[in-house]
């Protein structure tokens, strides 16, 4: 088989379709929803109406044997606006949690409920982070206790920094079943719509991604049926027994989700970087100083050249990681973390230079580059900080438990 980086017809069609939606629907509304700091329901509803926000689209994307279709869509949506992109694709993280930890029967039951229908779209949330357990997922304090008499799990704790937290119709919650085992003693639970005992806490006012709802999720004697334990109790008991014996666990609830989602989060960062580079390039061609376009100055031209090169390099790392994830290739060198690390830091670097090229114009809200810079920073923080990504990569390369 010959090697090629050329996208096929289906991928190009999806890329164009999502790009048109981003250009015609998302970009014109991006400033408004950033200022309002509210979930852009009209845009989510439009995405559901055309089939972009749907289980069918996600299934088709996951079925792409190259793994690129979801990465392409993520990049294009973030090119339009990252905050709205996260509002649209925020439910996908919960879906990934169900796929990573649930049985086929659970996947069939719960994943469609993450999206609802075109007439009545719904949201889902993945709740893992806590005030004292961000990068250190082994320190989760949220507890899940099994009530054998009622075949129910009782959840108690507070989650924080949760996308769609509290407003979601369905939450996937990672909780500790056996705190002594750290991350190996955790499990994921589906909290369906209308379950008593789950509520929204503080809603956060953020630096960026302000069109995406982020809040605390409070669990107060929240009871869910036994069937809501992803993977089932038999598999959990077997995994806990192995951990107590000191044997290696096949997967961990939170980490399994992050490993699968990192390339697609990284693709959003690539979309931000690409948007900033394109805007700065167009601006540099028309902005004149000292009798010529500023792009004719070597300092500006070289800056734009580096911006484009770094963005393209980040995309290639994303595509490699997405292909590996889709084809079940082990991330021997932590390729998923490499893509997230480079893409996130590239987005911050590129958007900062875009502001520099625009000068004073780049610092005010008349131009979108300041918003893109604000949006970009979170990609070096959430779903594993840059420092955590470097730790994962270093451990994979050395085979040692570097701390």
Keywords:
three-stranded mixed β-sheet, Butyryl-CoA Dehydrogenase, subunit A, domain 2, Butyryl-Coa Dehydrogenase, subunit A, domain 1, four-stranded antiparallel β-sheet, alpha+beta, Butyryl-CoA Dehydrogenase, subunit A, domain 3, 9 strands, globular, 13 helices, 403 residues
Please characterize this protein's 3D structure.
The structure is a single chain. The protein is of the alpha+beta class and 403 residues long. The protein is built from 13 helices and 9 strands. The protein is globular.
Ordered list of secondary-structure elements with their pairings:
Blueprint: H1 9-36, H2 41-49, H3 55-63, H4 68-80, H5 82-89, H6 91-101, H7 104-110, E1 124-127, E2 143-147, E3 152-163, E4 170-176, E5 186-191, E6 198-203, E7 214-225, H8 233-244, H9 253-286, E8 288-289, E9 292-293, H10 298-326, H11 335-358, H12 369-376, H13 386-398
Parallel strand pairs: 1-4
Antiparallel strand pairs: 2-3, 3-7, 4-5, 6-7, 8-9
Question: Could you write a compact summary of the structure shown?
Answer:
This protein is α+β, with helices and mostly antiparallel strands.
Largest sheet: 4 strands, antiparallel
Number of strands: 9
**What is the spatial order of strands in the main beta sheet?**
2-3-7-6
Q: Quick one: CATH class of the largest domain?
A: Mainly Alpha
Structural class: alpha+beta
Low-confidence stretches: none
H/I helix tally: 13
- By CATH, the architecture of the largest domain is named Up-down Bundle
Termini separation: 42 Å
Beta fraction: 5-15%
Silhouette: globular
Q: What's the CATH superfamily of the largest domain, by name? A: Butyryl-CoA Dehydrogenase, subunit A, domain 3
Mean pLDDT: 94
* Estimated radius of gyration: 21 Å
Helical content (DSSP H or I, runs of 4+): 40-55%
Give me the strand/helix succession. Answer: HHHHHHHEEEEEEEHHEEHHHH
- Report the CATH topology name of the largest domain: Butyryl-CoA Dehydrogenase, subunit A, domain 3
Q: How many domains would you count in the coordinates?
A: 3
């Amino acid at each position: 088989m010959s090697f090629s980086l050329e996208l096929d017809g289906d991928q190009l069609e999806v890329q164009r379709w999502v790009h048109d939606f981003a250009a015609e629907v998302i970009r014109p509304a991006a400033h408004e929803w950033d200022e309002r700091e509210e979930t852009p329901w009209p845009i989510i509803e439009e995405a559901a109406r055309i089939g972009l926000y749907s289980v069918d689209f996600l299934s088709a994307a996951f079925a792409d044997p190259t793994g690129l279709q979801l990465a392409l869509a993520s990049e294009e949506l973030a090119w339009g606006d990252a905050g709205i992109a996260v509002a649209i694709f925020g439910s996908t993280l919960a879906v990934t949690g169900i796929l990573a930890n649930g049985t086929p029967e659970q996947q069939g039951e719960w994943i469609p409920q993450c999206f609802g229908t075109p007439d009545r779209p719904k949201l889902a949330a993945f709740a893992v982070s806590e005030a004292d357990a961000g990068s250190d997922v082994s320190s989760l304090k949220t507890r899940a206790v099994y009530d054998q008499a009622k075949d129910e799990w009782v959840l108690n704790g507070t989650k924080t920094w949760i996308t769609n937290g509290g407003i979601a119709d369905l939450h996937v919650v990672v909780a500790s079943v056996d705190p002594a085992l750290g991350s190996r003693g955790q499990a994921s639970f589906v909290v369906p719509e209308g379950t008593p005992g789950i509520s929204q806490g503080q809603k956060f006012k953020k630096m960026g991604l302000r069109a995406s709802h982020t809040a605390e999720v409070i669990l107060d004697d929240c009871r869910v049926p036994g069937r809501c334990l992803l993977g089932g109790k038999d598999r959990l008991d077997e995994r806990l027994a192995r951990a107590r014996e000191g044997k290696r666990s096949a997967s961990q609830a939170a980490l399994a989700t992050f490993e699968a989602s990192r390339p697609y989060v990284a693709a959003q960062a690539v979309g931000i970087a690409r948007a900033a580079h394109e805007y700065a390039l167009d601006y540099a061609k028309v902005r004149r100083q000292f009798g010529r376009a500023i792009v004719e100055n070597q300092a500006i031209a070289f800056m734009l050249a580096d911006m484009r090169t770094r963005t393209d390099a980040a995309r290639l790392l994303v595509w490699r990681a997405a292909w590996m994830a889709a084809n079940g290739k082990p991330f021997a060198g932590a390729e998923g973390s490499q893509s997230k690390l480079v893409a996130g830091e590239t987005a911050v670097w590129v958007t900062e230079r875009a502001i520099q090229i625009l000068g004073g114009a780049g610092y005010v809200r008349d131009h979108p580059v300041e918003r893109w810079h604000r949006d970009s920073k979170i990609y070096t923080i959430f779903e594993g900080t840059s420092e955590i990504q470097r730790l994962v990569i270093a451990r994979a390369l050395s085979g040692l438990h570097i701390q």
